[in-house]
UniProtKB/TrEMBL annotation:
The keyword Hydrolase applies. One of its GO terms (molecular function) is hydrolase activity. This is Alpha/beta hydrolase fold protein. The keyword Hydrolase applies. Residues 6-221 form the AB hydrolase-1 domain. SUPFAM superfamilies: alpha/beta-Hydrolases (SSF53474). Coiled coil: none annotated. InterPro entries: AB_hydrolase, AB_hydrolase_1, AB_hydrolase_fold. Keywords: Hydrolase.
């Protein structure tokens, strides 16, 4: 049975290199998220759609890690007919509370003034304790453009709650979370999966960037789910 192409959207504040470990097995399309226009994740979603249109691709299985999950939700909101299945990785459906929005906007201002070095200190919190990937991830973060990082923070701060959107989406859904994810922990992932009717898989020994830390286990989870659901 023919299945839809897989699109995977990266986390903040990195880029599509986070998916390098799963490329051979999953063959994903992995757009990079860049600043463009007003800071609104719908704009990022439209740029993903434009890339798919340019490739002549219609429906896809759409996945995203952290911020990538937010962009996936934005795409689902504006073009649900393009989504055959959802893979939500170390992410959440709710909007930021006021304190979290204020923190994002403060970080964006700091990046505007001082560059991406302002967010490098957060890298260790995105990984499992003692992860050997800290230096690698830090180098990728330092390679980002300041305008992209600041734009992304402002866009995430403005995102709406997507819980009802996900609940009503009549497509197979997979929620994946790292055992040591301190940003969107496993109990939150299990609650989200229960609320939206998704399969939930916890990856052992990894943090918020679980596909980067455990690409083999992540690929297994996605392939098993695709076989089970036929998407």
């Amino acid at each position: 049975m023919e299945t839809s192409p897989l699109v995977l959207l990266h986390a903040f504040p990195v880029d599509s290199r986070m998916w390098d470990g799963v490329r051979e097995r999953l063959d994903p399309i992995t757009p990079d998220q860049r600043a463009g226009g007003e800071p609104d994740l719908a704009g990022a979603a439209r740029r993903v759609l434009a890339e798919l249109d340019g490739r002549g691709i219609g429906r896809v299985v759409l996945g995203g890690c952290s911020m990538g999950g937010y962009v996936a939700m934005a795409l689902l909101r504006i073009a649900p007919e393009r989504v055959a299945g959802l893979v939500l990785v170390d992410t959440k459906a709710v909007a930021d509370v006021e304190e979290a929005r204020d923190k994002r906007l403060a970080v964006a201002r700091e990046v505007d003034e001082h560059g991406v070095g302002a967010v490098v200190g957060s890298v260790s919190g995105l990984l499992a304790p003692g992860s050997p990937l800290v230096d690698e991830v830090r180098a990728v973060v330092l390679g980002q453009r300041a305008e992209d990082v600041a734009w992304a923070q402002r866009a995430m701060a403005a995102r709406p709650d997507s819980t009802a959107l996900l609940r009503e989406a009549d497509v197979p859904k997979l929620v994946v979370v790292g055992e040591h994810d301190a940003v969107t922990p496993p109990e939150r992932a299990r609650a989200l999966a229960g609320e939206i009717g998704a399969t939930c898989v916890e990856l052992a020994g990894v943090g918020h960037l679980s596909p980067w830390e455990a690409p083999g286990a992540f690929a297994d989870a996605v392939l098993d789910w695709r076989r089970a659901t036929g998407v």
